[in-house]
Amino acid sequence: MRHVAIIGSGPAGYYTAEAAQKQWGDDVRVDIFDRLPVPYGLIRTGVAPDHQSIKGVSKRYESVSMAANSRFLGNVTIGEDVSIAELQELYDAVVLATGAPNDKMPGLPGENLGNVFGSATFVGWYNGHPNFAKLNPQLSGKTAVVIGNGNVALDVARILAKTRAEFAGSDIVGHALDLLDSSKLERIVILGRRGPHQIAMTPKELGELGHLTRACPRVDPADLPDEGEDALLEPGQRKSVNHLRSFAAIPESHRADMAIEIEFDFFAAPKSIMGSDGKVTAVEVERTRLEGGRAVGTGEIYEIPADIVVACIGYQTSPIPGVPFEENAGRFANAEGRILPGLYCVGWARRGPSGTIGTNRPDGFSVVEKIAEDIGNGGGKKGSAGFDAIAAARKLDIVEFHDWQKIDQAEVQRAREGAPREKFVRVEDMIGAAGLE
Ligand code: NAP
C-alpha cells in the first residue's frame, strides 16, 4: 500500500489525487488536507464569482473525494496542527499543493496607504475568503486604479464595473455585492507598464469588458502598434489585441450613455502611491517605452487621481520552514515537482503563479510519475491511521468530505434568489454548518 498526503485542496491538489487514483487504484490511500473547512482552493476563492462555468470543474474533484481510497481533511493547518516532518514520517509521499495565496506588491512608496490592496486580498474579499472577508474597501470615490495587465486585473476591473443585475447567477458574497452596489466609481484605470502586444490577458476574458451594462472600455488608438505587426503575434494574443482595437473604435456617442469608463493606460509604470490622512489620493506614473521588449522610463511623470488601488501583478507562495525555496521565482526549489524523494510540489507552489486551471492536470500526472519512481510499492508507513491517531490525541476538529457536503447544502439553501450559493465567510460558521461545534 502507498500512502500519499496532499496539502491543499485546490485544482493542483485534486488533479494530483486523481492522478494517484488512476496510477494505483486500490493500492493507494490519499489524504487531501486543507486549512479551511471547505475544499477547492482557488476554484472557490480565486476564480471570479461571475465565471461559474469554470467553477463547474469542482464536480470532478467531488468524485475524486468520494472515491473509497481518498479523503478530504479540512480545517487542518499543516505547520500548526501537524508538522510537515510528522507527515513525512506517516506518508510515503507528501505533496505541497499550497498555491500562491499571498499578495505580491510592486514595492512602491505609499503602497501601505489605506484603500491600497493586493489582488489576493481584494479577490479574497469579493470571493468570501475568511482571511479577507472583513476588508471593507471604500468605493465612495470616483477613480480606481488597477495595476497590471493580466487576467486578474481584468477580473478586478470587471467586478468593480458590474451592476447588481449583472451578478445574477454568480456566487459573489453578499457583503461584496452590497458594497459594490453602492459604489460611486466613474473611472477604472488599468495600468500596463508595457504595451498592447505585451498584455497577459486572454481573449475571452478581455472580450467581456466590451459587453458590460454601465461600463465601456477605452483604448487610445495612438497606443496600438501598426495593424500589420499583429501578424507576428500568436493567434490567442492576436485575438486579444483585436479586442483592444475594437475598444479603440467605440464611438464617443456610445460612451456618453455609460456611467463608468474602463481606461487602458499603456506604457505606464507606477512610481509611487500618494495619499493624505493615511489614504490613497493618487498614483504617480512614469510614461515608458519599449526597449528590447522591456519597459524603460522616459522621464515623463504624471498623476492619476485614485480613490482605490488594486495591484494585480501576481501572487506569492508562502515558504515553509525547512523546505528549500526559490525566493526570486516565488516557488519551492524543485526538479519537475520533486523537492526531494518523498516531498513534492505541484501547481503554483511548483511553478509560480502562471497558467490556467487546466495546466494543473498534466502537472498532477507528471508529479505522480516522479512519486512512483521514488516510492515503489510503499514503505510500510502508517498513513491515514497514523494521522487519525494524531488528530484524536490533539483533539483536532477535522472537516471530512461528508461534513463539507453539509456546509455546501447550507450555503445552497441560504443563497439569494438566482445565486448558486451564499458562502459562509467565517470559519466558525462553516464548522457550525457542518455540525461540529
Ligand atoms: P500575470 O498573468 O502574471 O500578469 C501580471 C501582470 O502584472 C503583467 O501584465 C505584468 O506586466 C504586470 N506587472 C508585474 N509586475 C509589475 C510591476 N511591478 N508594475 C507594474 N506591472 C507589473 O498575473 P495574474 O493576472 O495575477 O494572473 C495569474 C495567473 O492566473 C495567470 O496565469 C492568469 O492567466 C491566471 N488567471 C486566469 C484567469 C482566467 O483564465 N479567466 C483569471 C485569473 C487569473 P509585465 O508583463 O510587464 O511583467
General description of the model:
The protein has 437 residues and is α/β, with parallel strands linked by helices. It has two domains: 2-101 and 317-433, 3-Layer(aba) Sandwich (Rossmann fold), CATH 3.40.50.720; 102-311, FAD/NAD(P)-binding domain (3-Layer(bba) Sandwich). The chain has 16 helices and 19 strands. Strands 3-2-1-4-19-18 form a six-stranded mixed beta sheet, with helices on both faces. Strands 6-14-7-8-10-9 form a six-stranded parallel beta sheet. A hairpin with a 2-residue loop joins strand 11 and strand 12. Helix 1 packs across helix 13 (360-375) and helix 15 packs across helix 16. Bound molecules: NADP nicotinamide-adenine-dinucleotide phosphate. The site of NADP nicotinamide-adenine-dinucleotide phosphate has 24 residues, from helix 7. Residues 106, 119, 147-153, 155, 193-194, 198, 200, 202, 205, 270, 312-314, 353-356 line the site of NADP nicotinamide-adenine-dinucleotide phosphate.
Concise summary:
The chain has 437 residues and is α/β, with parallel strands linked by helices.
